[in-house]
Design brief:
mainly alpha; 7% strand; single chain; 147 residues
Length: 147
């Protein structure tokens, strides 16, 4: 009986060929991974600015209805429940945020709200979840976000 299947003269990769491929893949990974790791934190920081923009728009709606921004003490909670029906009689009937939870930053922390009298600022403590920090751990302020 004749074998009708063609077989190649070469059956498999040699150990040397596999080692060369593994070394090349290792070199590529060492060049690409550090760049990707940095991009993840950068993306989180940009997402925080986008989230702050949404909160800022909601705060502006609050001011449009009530004439002022919530006080620092009332905080962002004032966007979920009316802190004072006497002070804010024109408060939106369904509040300003749906649900009972305020949005959190990319690291699952609450945003810090500060009323400056005529304006406001929002702050995320960043990746280290502490005040201050540098690089990826630096605080993110809405007033410093670039859109």
């Amino acid at each position: 009986m004749h074998n009708h299947f063609k077989t190649s003269s070469r059956g498999a990769f040699s150990l040397m060929e596999l080692m060369i491929v593994i070394i090349i893949l290792g070199l590529l990974a060492s060049l690409v991974l550090p760049n990707l790791m940095g991009k993840g934190e950068e993306a989180k920081r940009k997402l925080v600015c986008v989230q702050m923009k949404g909160i800022a728009e909601t705060l502006k709606m609050f001011k449009l209805d009530n004439g002022v921004y919530p006080t620092t003490e009332e905080g962002l909670q004032a966007l979920i429940t009316n802190p004072s029906e006497e002070e804010y009689p024109a408060y939106a009937p369904n509040a300003y945020f749906e649900g009972k939870n305020l949005p959190k930053d990319s690291w699952k922390n609450e945003f810090i709200y500060i009323n400056n009298g005529t304006d406001f600022d929002l702050i995320s403590l960043g990746a280290d979840r502490k005040e201050g920090g540098e690089g990826d751990a630096a605080d993110i302020r809405f007033s410093e976000c670039k859109f």
